[in-house]
Amino acid sequence: MTRKISFFMFAVLLALICLAPAQERVGRIQVFVAPDHADWKYAPGEEAVFTIRAVRDGAPASGLKLTYTAGPEMLEPVLTKTVTLDSEGLRVEAGTMNEAGFLRLIATADVDGKTYRGLATAAFAPEKILPVTAEPDDFDSFWQAGKDALAKVPMEAERTLLPEECTSTVNVYQVSLQTEGPSAGSTARVFGMSAEPKAPGRYPALLGVPGAGVHKIGAMKKEAEKGAITLNIGIHGIPLTLDSNVYALLGRGALNGYWVYNLDSRDRYYYRRVYLACVRANDYLTSLPNWDGKMLAVTGGSQGGALSIVTAGLDPRVKGLASYYPALSDMAGYTKGRAGGWPHMFKDAANRTAEKLRTASYYDVVNFARRVKAPGIYSWGYNDETCPPTTIYAAYNVIPGPKSHVLALETGHWTVPEQTERVGVWLADFLKNGK
Q1: CATH T-level assignment (fold) for domain 30-126
Q2: Of 176, 302, 329, 361, which one is the catalytic site residue?
Q3: The pLDDT of residue 1
């Protein structure tokens, strides 16, 4: 039997439909860019081809207005184009490079007031990248004089047990050491957080050096639990047990932009005290009665990756290092029309004074890398916009000591678990077996 809906019922249903609120669909948009070579590498003169696609809620997105740019990393693009992306994505012939370096494509989509971004970076003969930063003729004598001055400063080590930070197997201390000050003849202090196994014995030592900024630093307990004496240092000469707000305030105030303080003087530049403080930290570690007397390694990322290489280049007691995406590397790159290292102070041509470029050459990672003889593992990604891969290869390629590198190609200035696990295994094995 056929049932009929009365005109009245139809009107009621229609009214309910009209009154029902409209459903709005929102979803995160992701823009993906990838080279068409699985290893992201191209021969000089070969066309770099990228694919761009976008997804919303995991499904292909279409109709997006998208702008892409391409050119040598960190420099002005040589190609800019705006297109409407369809669900199949887009293939872009982005050009080439005729010499060793990196070419980057960046794609952005503006949707509902939000900008979504993706990028990828093609490598051209990266193993042939060499530094453009000059090596001062008196580089070694300058730093030997600094170490000689440091040796005359009594260490006056102080350490305070922090019971609330200790575990059942590890003691944690705040350590304070006297060190060379901002200029020759002055003194300062460096603070660190140390973790040591409670069990009697003699252990290898591991120095941790920090990334850029002003922040609270903790102890490396996991490494200590595996059987190492660890010391994680700060670089600003302030205790590490203060309230977190103190570091934030200093970072926005008195220490904002510390990396360019006194850049026009090699003898007063901010990093002089920092580099020598890393050596002083090694003085402390190697003075401990429970150090095994032979194994000392250093590790860090970004600014810490730089300090790892610097420390190994300055101090022959360092037997191994693990460095992630080192900063402060080939900083003068911009003067030769290619990417320079963090903190990019020479990207602005107005900063390229003879005094500042000369000072930077005494502190550039590439000139310490030339002196690293200790075995090391190094890790970075091609999409890093803070520490560009051009600058990292400039340092890595001149290291004379045994070396290996772990690439996480699509990473920027961050790591993935697989990457840190690989480096961590190498470091733990090196501390234990020396190889």
Answers
A1: Immunoglobulin-like (2.60.40)
A2: 302
A3: 42
